[in-house]
Amino acid sequence: MLKAAVIGGGAAGFFAALSIRQHHPNATIALFEKSNKVLAKVKVSGGGRCNVTNATFSASGLSKCYPRGGKSLKKVFDQFQAEDTVKWFEAHGVRLHTEPDGRMFPTTNDSQTIVDCLVHAAAEGDVTVRLQTAVNQLAPSSGGWMVNGEVFDCVVVATGGSPMAKGFDWLRALGHRIADPVPSLFTFNMPGNSITQLMGVVVPRAIARVQGTKLSEEGPILITHWGMSGPGILKLSAWGARELADRNYTFTAQINWIGEPNEDRARTALEKAMPDIRKKQLGNACPFDLPRKFWAYLLDCAGCDANQRWMDLSKKDRNRLLNTLLNDTHEVQGKTTFKEEFVTCGGVELREVDFTTMESRIAPGLYFAGEVLDVDGITGGFNFQAAWSTGFVAGQLKGN
User: Fold this and answer.
1) Tell me, what's the pLDDT at 338?
2) How far is CA 226 from CA 189, 195, 201, 268, in A?
3) pTM higher than the cut 0.90
4) Which of 162, 142, 137, 163 is nearest to 153 (CA)?
5) Cα(15)–Cα(342) distance, rounded to whole angstroms?
6) How many Å apart are CA 184 and CA 67, to the nearest integer?
7) Strands lying side by side in the sheet with 96-98
8) 295-330: string of b/e by CB count within 10 Å (b at 16+)?
9) What pLDDT score does 161 carry?
10) How confident is the model at residue 342, as a pLDDT?
11) Model confidence over 295-337: pLDDT tens digits?
């Protein structure tokens, strides 16, 4: 009888265990979790709602949403992708709904629904969950793997991607190379910047760039009490994770607040709006889709009098205002990472894993799932999708 161990009680670990049960009905399955609770990240994700996946229902489409690992993951998504995730949860009594930006949440909008579903499925599948059981030993043994003195036929490592993950030490000892983990999804700190006085304001469509690089992402930007966040910033941090780490998170962010990369088109849009706003005060007539409070802030930054009428605005002032809208710059000095939702760039090097099975090319019988790999996605449910997919494929244990 097959005896399998799963190390890590997160999303990838649970899905791997459930996949083992599906593909190997008679297997004995033990899931090791070092803390006193499972699925901690699932519980706190998405503001407590759990962004389960994204409504990107094709393997090729999904693979483009991963700054690292997208090409490798396509082999996984060919076997289990977002549509399969939706069907899996629905088959287990959990319906998902899709928000306008493609993010998918349980209809209850409560992450506990997902936690309960996975825990119940594991119990139904006779998966033995060993809480507060840290794995202190992982080593090859005759005919299998030794885990804490107990022999298993195969092991799925789903220990996550934190730089503190002990699993990396084991894997290095086994001959695996590890890409140094650094934060992937993080917000920008701008200490002393007056823009932080607008905390809570969301600019719906902006383009964020890192000066001196080719890094550029579009999306909503949220002003916070420490700087900037929101999908536009988080996507930029994901694609620029390594480069921004190399810069010690000190750089200049260049923001286009109207999401129009072409200056001529922006100028034309303003000219088209002029007949309707020419007699109005600048502060009362924003020709672009910007929050009123934020528009007042930008006018002040551009040195424009909010009480002045548009028709009286000089060409020089109009050019300065357009430049502020299209090329506003802010100094970034540091980052803020939400500890509970920590996502890393880094982990087991991809070339050392067969992504058609998730088995190690270095150590047969050892499989990987989730963020322990050098794989990470942009914000929007993609990191959980990678966890479900790699867990499902790893759990097939095709080499066993």
Assistant:
1) 58
2) 5, 9, 13, 35
3) yes
4) 142
5) 19
6) 9
7) 53-54, 103-106, 96-98
8) bbbbbeebebeeeeebeebeeebeebbbebbbebeb
9) 79
10) 65
11) 999 999 999 999 999 999 999 999 999 999 999 999 999 998 7
Residue 292 CB burial class (10 angstroms; 0-12, 13-18, ≥19): exposed
Q: What is residue 165's predicted lDDT score, i.e. its pLDDT?
A: 56
Q: How far is it, in rounded angstroms, from Cα 51 to Cα 219?
A: 18
Tokens of 322: 């357009």
Give just the sign of the alpha carbon dihedral 329, 206, 294, 99: negative
Nearest by Cα to 298 from 326, 262, 272 = 326
Contacts of 10 by beta carbon, 8 Å cutoff, 6+ apart: 38, 39, 40, 41, 42, 158, 160, 370, 387
Q: Residues 285-305: pLDDT tens digits?
A: 999 989 999 999 999 999 999
pLDDT less than 50: residues of the chain: 340
Phi, psi of 177, deg, nearest 5: -90, 140
pLDDT at 163: 58
Q: Which two tokens stand for residue 76?
A: 């996984």
From the number of C-beta atoms within 10 Å of its C-beta (0-12, 13-18, 19+), residue 119 rates as middle
The amino acid sitting at 65 is: C
What is the separation, in whole angstroms, between the first and last Cα of the chain?
A: 11
Beta-ladder partners of 183: 344
Q: Is 263 exposed, middle or buried (0-12, 13-18, 19+ CB in 10 A)?
A: middle
Q: Contact, 370 vs 11, CB < 8 A?
A: yes
